[in-house]
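Readers of this paper often ask what the protein records in our data store actually look like. Below, we set out a record of this kind in full and without editing:
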Amino acid sequence: MNAFLKKYHIVMRLFSLLIAAFLWFYVIYQENPERSVTFADVPVRLIGEETLRLRDDLVRTDTETPTVDVRLSGAVSLLNLKAEDIIVRSDVSRITEPGTYTLSYDISAIDGVAVSGRTPSEITVSFDRQVTLDLPVDVVYTGELHESLIADTAIVDPVTVRITGIESEISSARYAQVTVDASSLASSFSGDLSYTVVDEEGEELSDNTYEKLDDTVHVEIPVYRERELPLKVELLYGNAALPSNSILTLSRDTVSVYGDIATVDALTELKIDTIDLSVQLGDFEKIYTLSLPDGVYLKDSANDTVTVHVGFVDLEVRQIVVTDIRIENIPVRYSVSADTSEVYVTVRGSKEMLDGLISGDISLVADLTDVKLINGMQTVPAKVRLRDNVSTLGVFGEYTIVINSGKLSNMPIFS
């Protein structure tokens, strides 16, 4: 009996639940009473945003889409909605200037459902102008270049780059800064580099405030070797000019140059000139413009000359009257005599040697070996001949004498 009663109670309970559910569905779908439902954080669609961008370069600066809470009232059967079924719109197309605006909005839902509440009653949106800036490229260096190297002015392409962003956020932008580590430069550099945007004080702008329209900059940096080179003048000695009595003076001994690394590394000196002292009667002085190999340049381009002076110590130049005039190698059957009795010869030597000259130390000799003689007077070349005791004297100039020659007839020839 107890088992029967227990089973009976379970059946009755189930039957009661079915009756209650039936009554609930009847009330809801037959009587359909009204109720209210609140939908939170419904996004607001901004109508006309694209128009503002195209027409006035205005863009919204809010980081998040505005949302509102919407309360709807209506029959229970009609309130089986989701937040995405509710359309909230606000028209921004009438905005023409940057700023923050408070706007009304419209709510659309299904027929038979009324908007019974909204929070907030208005939305706030902010717009700013989208601008494009052309910024000059500036190359800056970090680290130290090797002390023997110098970097010439960097060549950049393009010379300006374009960025775009919100006017209030990028109006302080002044330069596109390319940073190069100078300590890594061992030769000339060429490559594409990124850049950062900086203000007048060199402070970086946050890279999420702008968009680069030019991603990189091509940079070329000529790197040169710098070097101090000794200046060299080669002296050719002769005519009594010796290293012991010739003094070379330069207005400067070295010059600072820079240029192609391999070319400069190959240089040991900069030669100015070769001076033949055997043809220099007296002191020599000349201003030279420095001449450099291709690809090498003066560090101080305004100072491109050097003055070279050569002076002589205990060396004098005198004109000596030579009366010892000789004729050698007179052809057979010719009679030749010197018509010139004396010639002034220019010589150079020490004062002691010049003061000690005596007759016969210097002769003037005309060698007729290769001279075609004529009857009468003719001029022939003559050379200065020095005795051994004065052979270190220097002789300057070319000399001639006048001879009188005649061909002899009926002169026997002895074999």
